[in-house]
Design brief:
This protein is an all-alpha fold and 228 residues long. The protein is built from 14 helices and no strands. It is globular, with a radius of gyration of 19 Å.
């Protein structure tokens, strides 16, 4: 049945393909994988319709695993769409974590971390364990995962873990690491702007990471709003 679900989704994907849109999509993702030219709303509708007849989680996960190995980028997106429509628990973490090595660009990694982050927020001890492991990885995108693991945790953010993770990775010149550091801090600034301002200085952040972190809470921003 899982094979039939994957086949149904692929059939819908090919039917909705627009070859005229594919080159721009490939270019936007720097040519990491071929595209069929199916935009997000149409792609998600195909998945939504297909899943109606497949309530079983085992079948859904098996179909997602098959699509994750797909030739086209939209197939991988659809694998994540399937998982996003499942009630993910800590028992699913091995499957989700096992997808990290196949992430080869920000689009897959950031979407996957949105799913993993929701699970880990409910399990802070496990979150600390995983983040400390990921940040030592040789795989760029797994290191980025360590930074983004708490992106939407808000008041449940482990600030000590975030700070030590940034301290461990801040020396990397890689754009996607610096961008992730700034993004994580900028997002947490919505919860505690003062902590972010202080941490940016204590961590000695500069350049891209600093600009991103302080984009909405830095002195220049406050001055423009007449608060300084």
């Amino acid at each position: 049945m899982a094979e039939l679900l994957a086949h149904t989704i692929r059939a819908g994907l090919h039917q909705a393909a627009n070859p005229a849109d594919a080159p721009a999509m490939v270019a936007y993702m720097k040519g990491v994988q071929p595209f069929l030219g199916v935009k997000t709303p149409a792609r998600r509708e195909i998945v939504r319709a297909a899943l109606k007849g497949y309530p079983d989680r085992t079948e859904r996960f098996a179909a997602a695993a098959e699509l994750w190995q797909g030739e086209y980028r939209e197939e991988r997106y659809m694998a994540l769409d399937i998982l996003a429509k499942s009630r993910l628990t800590v028992a699913d973490l091995p499957v989700l974590e096992g997808m990290l090595p196949a992430c080869n660009w920000w689009d897959l990694l950031d979407t996957l971390m949105g799913l993993i982050g929701r699970v880990l927020t409910l399990h802070p001890e496990l979150r600390r364990e995983k983040v400390r492991l990921w940040r030592q990885s040789d795989h760029l995108w797994t290191r980025r995962a360590a930074i983004l693991a708490q992106l939407h945790a808000k008041s449940q953010t482990d600030t000590a873990l975030l700070s030590e993770t940034i301290a461990a990775l801040k020396h990397e010149k890689e754009f996607f690491i610096q961008k992730a550091i700034g993004w994580a801090l900028r997002e947490y600034a919505k919860t505690d702007a003062d902590w972010v301002r202080q941490s940016v200085n204590e961590l000695g952040l500069s350049g891209l990471a600093r600009r991103e972190a302080l984009k909405h809470v830095g002195e220049d921003f406050e001055r423009r709003r007449g608060r300084l």
